[in-house]
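Practice problem: predict the structure.
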Amino acid sequence: MGPADLNTAGAHRAPATAATPGAPANPVRRVAAASLIGTTIEFYDFYVYATAAVLVFGPLFFPSGNEAAETLASLATFAIAFVARPIGSVVFGHFGDRIGRKATLVAALLVMGVSTVLIGVLPTHASVGTLAPVLLCLLRFGQGFGLGGEWGGAALLATENAPANRRALFGMLPQLGAPLGFVLANTLFIVLASTMSEDAFTAWGWRVPFLLSAVLVVLGLWIRLSLTETPVFARALAEDRQVRVPVAEVLRRSWKVLVLGAFSVMLTYTLFYLTTTWSLTYGTKTLGYERQDFLLMLCIAVLFMAAATPLSGLLSDRAGRRPVLATAMVGGAVVGLLTGPLLSSGSTALVMVWLCAGLFFMGLVFGPIGAYLPELFPTNVRYTGASLAFNAGSILGASLAPYTAVRLAQAHGVSWVGFYLAGTAVVSLVALALLRETRTSALED
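Answer:
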């Protein structure tokens, strides 16, 4: 599904998104490129950190002589960005709802990119002692802060430029950046791990993916600066429909939707970070896979997520957001219940089945969210509301997911990791049942 397909699909626009005199318009191809490239870069940055946290950050920044303790300390820093993401949602959402989507998206990309590049030049514990982990935590916070403003803006850029009957198809474009960023990040780690010694990779090779982020950020900025404001927000701006403090308005008028929206996306995060970050830890340190071999397995499995994401966008435009999401959540629960039997089997084929199934249902639950969450909130607080719901869900579903999974596997066995995953699926399904369907809702409100 490419930009040309989107252009064809959007040939007949519904009144809710029809152009009005004086309203700026963005070509479909430019919207597709800006939505996709920005989130690809953002998620590349995020996954580079996640992979490095598993592979090298423990001994480099938290040396203790105990490998398990180093890994747990490293994974704990992973959670910092998820705490920062809702804060970023409030700050960037404020400006996104007050002055516009475009400028806010550019600022969010800069914050994320600068934080990532600076991690690539950080001194380690051996050089500056305890200052090293402090700086790492600070920059990790910066990553989460930037990403907190990125997703909502990218989703709105897509959905507010979309025909009414193709909003989920357009809204899946930012979501498609997640598997692309993941493949870019992990392919680079595979190449580095395969072409240099362990000592060289630990000494300086891990820095390369962080530094290369600068090239991607420049590309993303160039594409996004070519955009005009979305027609939906441009009309709201012309009619002076902004509110003074968007987050206060969300908390006053839409707090139930905000809470339910956050719990509805909880599974999205738990499913993804257990099938990627935690599985990398478990696969290399418990199952005995070589680092590059397991990274390659993950890169293959994430293709199932990449395939399911546009599929879910198409299906949710036809059948509705809730039926597709509910199906994906049930699938996620089944994957959870099969975690113990598949991962404990000792069979590479069955491990691949678990990875592919988990990431397929991740794509199926992830795709519709790009349209569904924005559709739940009115235009004048949509950036803040959708971003805050999405990123509050990250605290619930992902912040401590890898850490919790490591502890559960150590204390009770890998089956308990699956029970944890299935439990989050049930919570998300209940929250979804309490939310309304939005497929036929207008964005002009």
